[in-house]
Protein 1
Amino acid sequence: MKNLLFSFIFLSVLLSSCASQKGKNKPYACGRVFTKKEIKESFATLAGLLELKPGDAFADVGSQNGAVPVMLSSLVDSLEVYVQDIDTACLSEQELGKVLAYYSKLTEKPLRENSSFQIAIGTYTQTNLPAGYFDVIYTNATYHVIEDKEAVMNDIFTKLKDDGHFFVRDEFVEEGEVKICPGEDCGVPFASEKELLSQMEKSGFKLVQKWDDFSGYPVYKFGK
C-alpha cells in the first residue's frame, strides 16, 4: 500500500487541477505533457487499480483531451476507449489526434491501431455515452464540478454493463465542512463523502471498495 500511495503522489498533483494548461510549444493544447517514465511508473498503477483488461470497453468521464485513457491504452492493448467531456475547446478529433500521435511516438506503439477511440461530447445532464456498453468507467477530479449530479450519476449507471464498475476519484470534505475548489476555472465546493454515497445509492450504485488515501484523495469503486 505504501508503494501504491507513493506512485499516486504525482498523479494527484497532475490530474486534480480544475484548470487547463496551455502553451505554444506543447504537442497538444490542454493539460500536462507526460514522460515515458511517468506513464510506466504511475499509470501502470492506475491501470491495475481499474483492473483494465484487453478488450474492455472503457470510458473516462471528464477526460479533458483524452491524455489519460490514451496513456492507459499504451499499457493495456485492445481497449475500446471513449473519451468524454463537455469542453470542446480541449476535446475534439483534432486534439485527440495530437494526443494519440504524441504518445504513440513516445511509447513506440501504434496506439490508434492497438485500441479504438471514440469521442463523446456530453451535456450538463448527459454523458452521451452508449448505454449498457462499458466494463469500466472512470472519473478523476470531476465529481465536484458536475452541476446536476443526480442526472449525470443516473446516466452513468445506465452506461455500465451489469457487471461493470464505476470508479470515482476526487477530493471530499467532512460533513458540514465547506471547501472551495481553487482556481479561476473552478470555484465550486467539494462534496462530502456522505453526499457522494447518498447520491450513488439513489442512482442505483453499490459501493464495492474504497481506497482511503491516494496522496490525500480517496478512490471509490461502485457496481450495480
Protein 2
Amino acid sequence: MNTPFNYKHLYYFWVAAKEGGMSHAAARLDMAVQTISAQVRQLEHDLGHALFKPVGRGLALTEAGEAALQLAEQIFQIGEQLPSAVRDAASQGGLMRLTVGISDGLPKLAVRDLLAPVVAEPGLRLQCQEGEFDDLLADLALHRMDVVLADRPAPANPNLRLYSHALGSWAMGWFAPAALAKAARKNFPHSLSEVPVLLPTSHSTIRLRLDQWFERHGVNPNLAGEFEDSALLTTFAASGMGLLPAPVRMREQIKQSYGLVWVGECDGVEEHFFAIGTARRVQHPLVQRMLTVEVG
C-alpha cells in the first residue's frame, strides 16, 4: 500500500515550484517562509524523495520534483474546475452532460452511429469537440471531456493512464462522383491509377491500410488530394474532384447525402473505432451505454 500524503503539503510544494522558491511562495500565500519550508519537507519525507535541490542561492527541482510538479499541475487544474462544475450541475437540474472528443480523421457519418445509443437520452446536453488525436487525449487526461472517439487506441503512457475500449470496425469501399463512376468501374481497382483519387492524410490510421491495399493490387493511385478532416474529404469528393474510400455500411446514406455512387470493395481494409477514457471501469452512464453496442 502506498504511503498517504497530505494534499495541503502538495499544494504548498506546487506553489513553491511555480513561484521559484519558498520566499516567493510565502509572499503569494501570505505565510511565513518557515511554514512553507516545513510543509514541503514533510511532503518530501512522506514521498521518500527530495523534491528541491540547492542551486547557487536558490532552489531547483530534482527529477523527482519535476515528476511531482507534472502531476500536481493536473491535480490542481482539475481542482480549479470544481466550483464551475458544481455550479453547472446545480443549475441544470436533471440535465445529463456528455462531452465527447472526436478525432478529426473519423468519418462524420460513423460518429453519428457511434453516438446513436445516447443521443435520445431525455435531458441530454451533448458537447462534441473535434481535434487532433494527441490534443484530445491531453484534454481527456485533464478531465475536460468524458470520452474520446478515435480510429486508434491510446498509446501506452504511464503518466496519462488512459484506457481504450474497442467499439468494432467497418469494412471500406470506394465511392465516386457520378461523372467518374463509369471510368472507375472499368478494370477496377486498376482504374484508380487513372481516375482522380482523394485520400486521408497519413495522420489517419486508415491511410496505412489503404496504401498497403494499393500495393497488394499493384495500383499506383492517381492522387488528386489529401485531407486531414473527413468531412472536407467527402465534400470535395461530392464536388466531383475524385473518388474516396468510405464505410460500406454508409452506402445508401453517402448516395443520398452526397450523390456519390458505389464503385467497389476495398477488400481487407477496415476502419476501427475506439472509445478512450480515463478509467478501466467506465463510470459515466452514457459512456457505459456506448460501450455495450458494438458497431460493425
Protein 3
Amino acid sequence: MGAWGIGPFDNDDAADFSGDFDDASQVDRPELIRDALQNAVGVCDYLDVDVATIAIAAAAIVAAQLPGGERVDTAYGPKSLSDEGGAMLADFAPLAVQALDRVVDEDSEWRELWHEGSDADEALEVIAGLRARLLGWQPQ
C-alpha cells in the first residue's frame, strides 16, 4: 500500500473507493456503500486490510451525510457528497457501526498493522470518533 495514514481516506484503497463513489450515479451510490460495509461485516475469518480500509471510508461517507455530519475535507475523499443523498445513506449507520466494530476486531489485518506502528492510539481514536457519530445519530 502506497499511502497510509490515520484518516479514513488516507490510504490508496480508500482514495480509490472515493473515486468510485464520485464516478457512480446518485442512484448507484447507496449500493456501493452497502456493499463496502457488508464486505467487512460478512467476513467470518481474517479481515484483509483492503476490505477494512474501504469499509472505513464508506462509514466516513455515511457519517458525513448524517444531519450535522462533519464535512469530508481531504484531497483523497469524495468530492461529490451532497445533502440529496444523505437520507438514503443515513439508513446505513447501523451497518457502518458493525463494519467499524469488525475492522477493530482482533482478527483484522487493519488492527494488526496499526498495532505494529506507533500511531495505533490515534488510528483507533479516528474509528471511535466515526463510531460515536454514527451511534449518536437519531432519525428525525
